[in-house]
C-alpha cells in the first residue's frame, strides 16, 4: 500500500471493517479496500511478499496541507479529516470523493478529530488552544472550549481526542490544570470542564476509549462504566475506569519517545499503542481486570432512554442503531409522509430505504450529457474533452452487487452498444475562437484529478515550512535510522531548473530558533540557534545530545543550523552558511572538518555511516564518513521537469553508498557509478505495466489464479510482447538492486508465461544462455558468465526446466536441455 507520496500520519478502519482510510503529508486521504487478488511480491523488498492485496478505491483531494487525523461517522456515511490548513473536511462516503462540508473556525493546525457515538456532533482539537464541537445536522459550530488549554505551552505532534462510548463525555488531549498536564473531561451536558485525568508528567498526546461499555459482573446490572487509555509525551500509558478515582494501571517508559496513537480491539480486551520511536506495543486484558462487556441490546436500550429515537445502523452489527437526539436531524431525510425519498446519483435512482444498506457502494460514472464545441483560428472544429472516471473492477462490482441485488441497476454502462438507443449527449456550440491544442478559457470541463494533484504537490515543502512556524516540523528531512534500518526520508522538495547557473534551483530553508530531532536508543538532539552571544551581534549556536532526559554532551557552532539527521554512528547538521558538520553520537567529537557545500542544503539524510545532502542547486553528494571518502557527486536536475512540477518525495541509501530516489511522477531512480548515470528502476505510470498480463503476480510467481485486472491492449500478440517486455524491465531493475530472490521469482514467472504462450524460440534462447558453452570452441563461451547475482546459471536452468515441464507442448525442448545439462554435470 504505497500510493501515498509522502509520510502517512493516520490510518482508520471504518466501523464496518470494509474500508481503511489513510491520510498523509501529501495532502491526500486515500480509501483502501481488500480485493480478491493473490498477494504480490514487494518490489525491492528483498523477497518479502504481501499476504493480502489492498486497492485504493478513492482518493479524496481538497486539503491544502498535511492531513493529521481521520474519523469515521458511526454509520460510516461520513469521514472527517483534519489538516494543518486549519480546517476539517467532511466527505460523503456514499458518493466518494464528494466533500460536503468544510468546517472553518480554527486558527491553528487541526491535529485531532472525534465523532460523537450518537452521531449528533463531531469534535476537533487544534494548536490554537481550543476544542470545537460541530453539529452534524447543519455542520455549524455548537460550542468552543478554551479555558482548560489557556495555560498550555508549546505543542505536540498530534492531539487525538475521543468520546466515551455512552456519548456523555469528550476527553481532550494536552490540557493544563494547576501547571500540570491533564486530559480534560468535557461533559455533554452544558459542555462543563470541571473534571480531568491527572498524573502524567508531560503533555497528553492521545486519548482512546474502549468502544464497549463495561460492568463489574452480571450481578451488577445498571452500574455501567467506561474504560479509557491515555498516552503522553512522557513515554507512558495509563488505563482508567470511570468507576475508579485512580488509574487501573500505569505503564512507565513503555517507549523511547512520545506515544502517538492508541487503538482498542472490537472485543474490548486488547489495546495497541504506537510511538514516535517506530515501535508498537500490544497489551491484553481479561474480564477480571476490565469487567464484562455490556450487550449490544442493553446498549441500544440505554441510548434510547437517554437520547430518544433510533436511526441508521452502525458498526459491524447492522442491527445496532445510532439514535437521533434532535428532530431537525431527521427532517432533511423526510420528503413525504408515506412515499420514500429518492436520491438521484450519477446514472441511477436510489431509494432512502436502500441507502443505509449500501454504505460504501461506488457508482460507476459515465460521460456527461453535454459537450462544448468551439472553433480554432484556422476554422477547425474543436470539442472540449471531458474527463471520464474509470469503471469499477469487475470482481469488486460483482461482490458489491451480490449483497444488494436491487441496487444492481445503479451501475450504468459507460458506453452504449450498437443495439441501444442513440446517444443523448448534447453538443453546445459557442462562438469562441481558441488556439489549436488549447481548450477554451470559458470551458467548464473538469480537469483530471491526477493533473491537479501533481500541481499541488510541487510546493509541499516550501509552502509547509516557509509559510508556517511549527518548531517540531519545520526542518527538512529530520529522520533517523538504526544500524540496519532502511527508512525513507520523505522530503517533498520541489525542483526546477534555473536559467542562470549562479541562481539556486530550490529555495533554501529559513532559520528556526530551536527544534528537536528524535533518534534511536532513547536519544534526541536539541538545536538552539543564537543560544549564547559572544560579542556585538555575534552569537554561537548549540547542538545538544539528550539521553533519557539528561544532556549527554553539547557542541557550539558558529553558523545557525537549519537541518539535522542522525543514525547510531553519527549526527550531521547543515548550517545556513552552506556547510555540513558530522559528530560522533557517543561523545560529540567531530568526525571530519566542516564540508563546504555548493549551496544551502535542502535535504539531509543519514543512514548507518553514510551522509547524503541535496543542495539548493540540485547537486547531490553522498559521503562515507567512516572511510572519509565520497561515494557520489552528481546532479538530480536531469530527473525533473523544467517547470518544477516534479517533487522529490523520498531518499534512501543502499549498502554500497548509492542513493535510491523517488519522485512525485511515480518514477524511482538509482545511480550507477560504473555507467556514470542515473538508472530508472520503476515507474508506476509505465504503459508496459498497464498493458501487461504480469502486473500482479503472487508470491509464488503465479499470475493466472484469481481475477486480475484486464489489460488495456486488445491485440493478443501485442499483449504478449508487452508482458515479456515488462518482465524484462523488472528483472533488469532487480539485477541492479542485487535482489536474487525476487529476480528468481520474476524469471520463473516469465518462463511460465512464455511456456503457456508457446514461445519456444524465446525459451530456447533463454535456456542456451543459462546452459552456457558445451565446449571451448563455442561462440557462446567468449562473454558468458556462469553466475548471475551469486546464483549459478545451471542451477537456475534446472528450475526453469521444471517450470517448462508443466506444459506438455514443451516436452521435447525440456528433454533436449535436460540431457545437455546432465552431460555437463557428469563431465
Describe this structure as you would to a colleague.
The strands form 15 sheets. Strands 13, 14, 15, 16 and 17 form a five-stranded antiparallel beta sheet that branches. This protein has a five-stranded mixed beta sheet with strand order 34-40-41-42-43, with no helix packed on it. Residues 309-368, 389-424, 435-491, 496-504 and 698-712 have low confidence and may be disordered. By secondary structure, the chain is an alpha+beta fold. It is globular and about 90 Å long. Among the domains are: 1-37 and 50-146, 7 Propeller (Methylamine Dehydrogenase, Chain H); 495-685, 7 Propeller (Methylamine Dehydrogenase, Chain H); 688-701 and 709-824. It is built from 13 helices and 53 strands.
Keyphrases for this structure?
Methylamine Dehydrogenase, Chain H, alpha+beta, 53 strands, single chain, globular, 827 residues, five-stranded antiparallel β-sheet
Short description:
It is found in: Nucleus. With 827 residues, this protein is of the alpha+beta class.
